[in-house]
UniProtKB/TrEMBL annotation, chain A:
Pfam families: Transket_pyr, Transketolase_C. This is Alpha-ketoacid dehydrogenase subunit beta. PANTHER family: PYRUVATE DEHYDROGENASE E1 COMPONENT BETA SUBUNIT, PYRUVATE DEHYDROGENASE E1 COMPONENT SUBUNIT BETA. Its cofactor is thiamine diphosphate. Residues 4-177 form the Transketolase-like pyrimidine-binding domain. It comes from the Bacteria. GO terms for molecular function: oxidoreductase activity. Keywords: Oxidoreductase, Thiamine pyrophosphate. The keyword Oxidoreductase applies. Gene3D superfamilies: 3.40.50.920, 3.40.50.970. InterPro entries: THDP-binding, Transketo_C/PFOR_II, Transketolase-like_Pyr-bd, Transketolase_C. SMART domains: Transket_pyr.
From TrEMBL, chain B:
GO terms for molecular function: pyruvate dehydrogenase (acetyl-transferring) activity. It comes from the Bacteria. The keyword Oxidoreductase applies. This is Thiamine pyrophosphate-dependent dehydrogenase E1 component subunit alpha. Its cofactor is thiamine diphosphate. The keyword Oxidoreductase applies. It comes from Tectimicrobiota bacterium. One of its GO terms (biological process) is pyruvate decarboxylation to acetyl-CoA. CDD domains: TPP_E1_PDC_ADC_BCADC (cd02000).
Length: 332, 370
């Protein structure tokens, strides 16, 4: 087993795709000589040159728009935002131009937007965002959320080869994790060489009979921990990692809910306006008769991400909160 | 021809002189060239710009066709055939035609909403433009969008979005691709005087200048950003002066002179193709109409100035007069060109109006590329 870190998996995907396809190039702040804020592209510029690993001026709208233009003209740009939070600067370029170009019959925009997402310790309100709901309501964007090194590599390769704009959320908290540091369900080896992970396929991390715990991104850790606690209490929870938000694996969600009759949706992002609300509505519309309990959601409270450690801890949905919600659901 | 114009450059212009710039008076027979920190007036020798007859016929046709297409669309709008609204380029025809006619077939055009002439010069067929305005299935967006929010991929014309300024980064990116692909191509785009206030414009100019992307940016300064006068839009004497800040060459020209526009833009594109990086060209015209068909512009436009530009700087009248004065075309040839343009526009309208509307069942189709 090679068991590389999540960060190494991302780097490997970029490196291999750049070797495979000369149309692939990288742009972002400080990614060249400096290797990026999180060192994902460390050593890339020395190997691929200044034209393919581009230190952008501090101008997200400018370089995102330019990358979109390059994509229209036959290139395969991968844009790195220093923190997912800063993508707001480029929002109109993505949601107004890139997302709609194909629908307006002017061709696809094959671009990957890498968003280092979610909380890291005391990142505060502007370095901790989970950006998925900003984009979730925009047609024309694919949104992926790899939780493992295996997914990080395979999905980044898939994203680069996709003809559509892809919001690629990657999780800062996971960068240094090796599969060996994770619960057994997440110890998925990263094979040598080329492979891709198709979009729209959820992964069942653990089979269960009594209830379904649906999650993605950083929350997979809390989900697995909580499921283990419940197991000791005699409750069998099925844990599903969505992996891709658009396209969404509707079949996997419906199948599991039909089997267990109870659903908890967990995400680190705020509950209000979150992806969980859409999934809850989907269940209510399509398999309501299979439900044995009201759908529950666990997400962050309705406030920005605070910095001070006790506040941040209170903000982030922790295992205890998930366990509590699961117990209530099991007892319903 | 070019050497002659460049050699005629005068002493650097003092800033006091530029402070009282009057576009009508000061650009009548010269243009401003900005290199580094210096701006110089360059006299225009009109004889030097004289086109050959085939060239003149083509340019004249494009100019006349631009006006005919827009007038036909205007009347179609009033007859209820145009859903939404319509923006026209009256007064700006020479800037669009003169600039885009410098592009090679394989090069990209990134137009704005007031560049009908650029579309036509790059080869966008009038029937496709009409079908787009009429929301028909045969238009380039198949009814997904309308007005001048269109591109035309077969001729390498991108579409645009309403967010003013956003297209300059896109154009810079297409130029970026050209540089990476080493294909020797240049890209041409436009922004209005209002759009230069947006951050996107600045970000794109800066990035393109840093990386020497092969790009020419034409500022279509038509003296009104919707209803806002220039004095409320920017504080420098001329937008072209901003070129110094980006480290690129700049030009301030009268955009109603199709031959001058063509000369200056072709020079910028040549420079770009040779690896010299971007150029910023401010082309001054007067918007001879409202912002859109709904706009009661007489409420806020200085009508005295408006009439002056309409009489003396109508780009089509100007070109007609030039061609006669310099004996390039006869009045009969010019009249025939106008009649042909009118006929083509009306035929395009009739054909477009017979095209079907898009199938409502397909409303949600084609969001993603498969």
């Amino acid at each position: 087993m090679s068991l590389i870190t999540y960060r190494e998996a991302l780097s490997a995907a970029l490196w291999e795709e750049m070797e495979r396809d000369e149309r692939v190039f990288l742009v972002g702040e400080d990614i060249g000589l400096g290797g990026g804020a999180f060192y994902i592209t460390k050593g890339f510029q020395q190997h691929f040159g200044r034209d393919r690993v581009v230190d952008a001026p501090l101008s997200e709208a400018g370089f995102t728009g330019a990358a979109i233009g390059a994509a229209l003209a036959g290139m395969r740009p991968v844009v790195e935002y220093q923190f997912a939070d800063f993508v707001t600067e480029a929002f109109k370029m993505i949601v107004d131009f890139a997302a709609g170009n194909h629908y307006r019959r002017m061709g696809p925009v094959p671009i990957v937007l890498r968003l280092p997402s979610a909380a890291l310790v005391s990142g505060g309100p502007y370095h901790s965002v989970n950006p998925e709901s900003w984009f979730f309501g925009t047609p024309g964007l694919k949104i992926v959320a790899p939780a493992t090194a295996y997914d990080a590599k395979g999905m980044l390769k898939q994203a680069i080869r996709d003809d559509n704009p892809v919001i690629f959320m990657e999780y800062k908290k996971f960068y240094n994790y090796r599969p060996a540091d994770l619960p057994p369900q997440l110890q998925i080896d990263v094979p040598e060489g080329d492979y891709t992970v198709p979009f729209g396929q959820a992964r069942t991390l653990r089979e269960g009979e009594d209830l379904t715990l649906l999650t993605f991104g950083t929350s997979v850790l809390e989900a697995l921990e909580a499921a283990q606690v419940l197991e000791r209490e005699g409750v069998s929870a099925e844990v599903i990692d969505l992996r891709t938000l658009v396209p969404m694996d509707k079949e996997a969600i419906l199948r599991s809910v039909k089997k267990t009759g109870k659903l908890l949706i967990l995400h680190e992002a705020r509950k209000r306006g979150g992806v969980g609300g859409e999934i809850a509505a989907l269940i209510a519309e399509e398999v309501f008769e299979h439900l044995d309990a009201p759908i529950r959601r666990v997400g962050a409270p309705d406030c920005p991400v605070p910095l001070s450690p006790p506040l941040e801890k209170a903000y982030l949905p922790g295992t205890a909160q998930v366990v509590g919600a699961l117990r209530e659901l099991a007892a319903f | 021809m070019r050497a002659k114009i460049q050699n005629a450059a005068s002493e650097p212009v003092r800033s006091e002189e530029l402070a009282g710039l009057d576009f009508f008076r000061d650009l009548a027979d010269r243009y401003l060239s900005i290199e580094g920190l210096e701006a110089r007036w360059v006299p225009i020798q009109r004889e030097d710009l004289r086109p050959g007859k085939p060239d003149a016929l083509r340019l004249h046709h494009l100019l006349s066709l631009t006006r005919a297409v827009e007038e036909t669309l205007d009347s179609a709008f009033r007859s209820g055939h145009v859903p939404g609204t319509a923006f026209f380029s009256r007064g700006n025809e020479a800037a669009g035609v003169g600039s885009a006619s410098c592009l090679r077939e394989e090069e990209w055009l990134v137009p704005m909403h007031r560049n009908c002439g650029a579309h036509l010069a790059k080869g966008h067929p009038p029937v496709s433009i009409m079908a787009h305005f009429f929301g028909r299935a045969g238009g380039p967006s198949e009814g997904r969008d309308g007005n001048f929010h269109m591109g035309y991929r077969p001729k390498k014309i991108t579409q645009l979005i309403s967010h003013i300024g956003t297209m300059v980064p896109i154009a810079a990116g297409i130029a970026w691709a050209a540089k990476l692909q080493r294909n020797g191509q240049a890209v041409l785009t436009y922004i209005g005087d209002g759009g230069t206030s947006s951050g996107d414009f600045h970000e794109a100019m800066n990035f393109a200048a840093v990386r020497k992307f092969p790009l020419a940016v034409v500022i279509d300064n038509n003296q009104y950003a919707y209803k806002t006068p220039l004095s409320d839009q920017y504080a420098c004497p001329a937008l072209a002066l901003r070129a110094s800040g980006y480290g690129v060459p700049g030009f301030l020209i009268d955009g109603t002179d199709v031959l001058l526009v063509r000369e200056v833009v072709s020079r910028a594109l040549e420079r770009a193709r040779r690896g010299g990086g971007p150029t910023l060209i401010e082309s001054v015209t007067m918007r001879l109409g409202g912002h859109s068909v709904y706009d009661r512009f007489t409420d806020y436009v200085d009508m005295e100035k408006f009439k002056l530009w309409q009489e003396k700087r109508d780009p089509i009248k100007r070109f007609d007069q030039y061609l006669i004065e310099y004996e390039v075309l006869t009045p009969e040839e010019i009249a025939a060109s106008h009649a042909r343009a009118r006929r083509e526009a009306e035929e395009a309208r009739d054909t477009a109006l017979k095209l079907p509307f898009p199938d409502p069942a397909k409303v949600a189709e084609g969001v993603f590329a498969e």
